[in-house]
Please model this.
Amino acid sequence: MSAITETTDGPIEVIQVLFALHPSFGAQELCGPLEILSKALHKINDPATKAFEITIAAPSDDVSSSSGLTIKADIDYDTAHEDLSKYDVIIIPGGDGVNKVLETQSEPLPIISAFAKLQISDPSKERTLMSIGTGSLLFAQSGILQGLAATTHPDYYTKMEIICKDAARKGDLEQTDVMEENYVVNNARYELGENLEENPFVLSKRPDAKRKSIARKGSNAWKESVKRRESNARRASLRLGGLRLITSGGITSGLDASLYLVAAMVSHESAQEVARIMQYTWNKGVTVEGIDV
Model:
């Protein structure tokens, strides 16, 4: 499939998303974000301007969720690793199978680490890594959360803290701030604008100086950011080479984080339209570190 959508205003590059599955993944942790991204358009009245192209990777041709839903994979993990540089976003659903992945150190752990290393070695491209529910435990296990903030399903806060502390001992001793939030965004991209009160993503300032969720406005703004040398330099100075890292809580938190992703990479208008179509009220999370690029 082509990664370019033709419009009357010229081509708009489609954002490439990889869902990295494991056996006994959470069905709703896949289907909810998949539905949101599939409905997102660069131009809300033009069905030809699909914003995201979805690929599903799994360790076998077919992979089943903990509830028995069987999904046919588009590619295996060998192919996913070979094509890793083409993806703009990788999404890791949680689910009952996460514990087995932790025990066996199996996929998607290797691809999480590989994607993070790719961003560090090549910060010229804007990349995003997002987890749904307990998928963030795999981020913790891989060590990429050191020095950052994150959340997970509320039943797993303690386990998340234990894994993060263990990763810190094995790494450079930097701790992870495990937050009890809807979703948490590190290394955000946004345009502040001249009037913060008019920015739909700046809801309020917190006592600890953290702002509620912020994202930039403007279709295809993500693509424009990689063309500016100053953006690349500032991204390279951030942790993980500026890899945008999003963790979310339970199932509905994954919907909220996915709407944030649409707003950040497509437009706020597109995210609002998807929420309207789905008759869903978008609840914001928090942004803990951002730069105006």
Q: What stands out?
A: The longest helix spans residues 251-265.
